[in-house]
Give the backbone structure.
Amino acid sequence: MSNPENRVVLECLSLTKEFSEGPEKLEVLRGIDLLVSPSERVAIVGTSGSGKTTLLQLLAGLDYPSQGEVILCGHQLMNVSEQQQGELRNRHLGFVYQFHHLLPEFTALENVAMPLLLRKEVSVRQARIRAEKMLGMVGLSKRARHKPAELSGGERQRVAIARALVAKPDLVLMDEPTGNLDPHTASKIHELMKSLSKKLTTSFIVVTHDMAFARQMDRALRLEDGNLVPVP
Ligand SMILES: Nc1ncnc2c1ncn2[C@@H]1O[C@H](COP(=O)(O)OP(=O)(O)O)[C@@H](O)[C@H]1O
Ligand SMILES: [Mg+2]
C-alpha cells in the first residue's frame, strides 16, 4: 500500500447518520466503529434498508455523517475540501456497484484504463499495458476491445472489478457487486474476488446478501439496528 507506515487502512469512529423526514428522524447508523487492516477482507450483510449503502457512502466521503469521523490511510476524510476528498478517493479507493457504471462509449480496455489516466501519474501507453494485464487477471483479455453493451452481465462486473483494482487502491468498496447476477455467475465472480484478494494487497469491504460468501471473508459483520455486530 502507499503508506506502509500506517497499519490501518480505514478507521471509522462513532459514526452516526440520521435522515430527517419532516418532523420524523430516521436514525440509520447509530455509532459505527470499524477498523480495517491492510489486505483485510470484510463482508457486511444486513436486510434491505438497514443502512449498508449509507455506510459505504460515508466511508468514501460521498456523504457526511451526522457525527463521527472517517480516517482513510491516515487522512481525515470529513474536515477537508471536496477537492482534497476527491484526491484521497482517487489515490486510495476503488468502487464496484451492483450496476456496473461502465462508460458505454468506451471499450472494456479503455474503461479499465480510466482510473490510471485520471491520476495522470502514468503515460497513456503505460495505462494501456496495466489495463491489459488487469483484464487478463479477471479473465477477459479476449473481450478487451468490446464495449459494455457487447458484454454479458458477468463480464461487465469483471470489467468493473478490473477498473476498481487497476490503480492498486488501498481499499475497494463493493456494494452488492453480484446482486444483479444469476447465482451461477455470482459464484464465479465470488471465486474471482477471492483469488484476486489473495494476490493483491488491497483491502476489501464487500456488501453482500450471500452468507456463504460472507463467511469466506476474513470477517463478516451484520448491520443491525444501526450497529455493526459480528456474524457468528
Ligand atoms: N438521502 C436519503 N434521505 C432519506 N432517507 C434515506 C436517504 N438515503 C437512504 N435513506 C434511508 O436510509 C435507510 C437505509 O438505506 P440504505 O443505506 O440504502 O440501505 P441498504 O443499502 O442497507 O439497503 C433506508 O430506510 C432509506 O430509505
Ligand atoms: Mg444498498
Summary: The pocket of magnesium ion (ligand 2) is lined by residues 52-53, 175 (CB under 6 Å). Residues 1-5 have pLDDT under 50 and may be disordered. The helical segments are 52-59, 82-92, 108-119, 124-137, 153-165, 183-199, 211-215.
